Amino acid sequence: MNERITNIEIQLMHHENTIQQLNEVVTRQQLAIEELQADFRQMTEHLREVYPSDVREPEEEEPPPHY
Questions:
Q1: CB 61 within 8 Å of CB 52
Q2: CB–CB of 62/52 below 8 Å?
Q3: Left (φ > 0), alpha (ψ -120 to 50) or beta: where does 64 sit?
Q4: How confident is the model at residue 67, as a pLDDT?
Q5: What per-residue confidence (pLDDT) applies to 66?
Q6: What is the pLDDT of residue 57?
Q7: What are the tens digits of pLDDT across the range 6-65?
Q8: What pLDDT was estimated at residue 59?
Q9: 28-43 burial, b for 16+ CB within 10 Å, e for fewer?
Q10: DSSP states of the chain as a string?
Q11: Smallest Cα–Cα separation from 52: which of 34, 65, 36, 38?
Q12: pTM of the entire predicted model
């Protein structure tokens, strides 16, 4: 009986270790996702500033720089 309990405790320790490792992976991935989302928002905003939209009304368009 003691051997069974010891085996179950060892198995539980392995499971807890695996859960901790998975939690660390998920946390790192979430941070990476948030960083990528921020980069994407920044690039999108930059592209909107550099390339005007084809769907804007003519009065909403900024004049070309040579005017």
A1: yes
A2: yes
A3: beta
A4: 55
A5: 73
A6: 67
A7: 999 999 999 999 999 999 999 999 999 999 999 999 999 998 888 876 766 666 667 777
A8: 67
A9: eeeeeeeeeeeeeeee
A10: -HHHHHHHHHHHHHHHHHHHHHHHHHHHHHHHHHHHHHHHHHHHHHHHHHS--TTS-GGGSPPPTT-
A11: 65
A12: 0.63
At 10 the pLDDT is: 98
Amino acid identity of residue 47, one-letter, is L
Q: Which residues, including other chains, have CB under 8 Å from residue 61's CB and lie 6 or more apart?
A: 52
Contacts of 62 (CB under 8 A, 6+ apart): 52
Nearby residues of 54 by Cβ (< 8 Å), 6 or more positions away: none
Q: How far is CA 55 from CA 6, 10, 52, 58, 65, in A?
A: 70, 64, 9, 9, 20
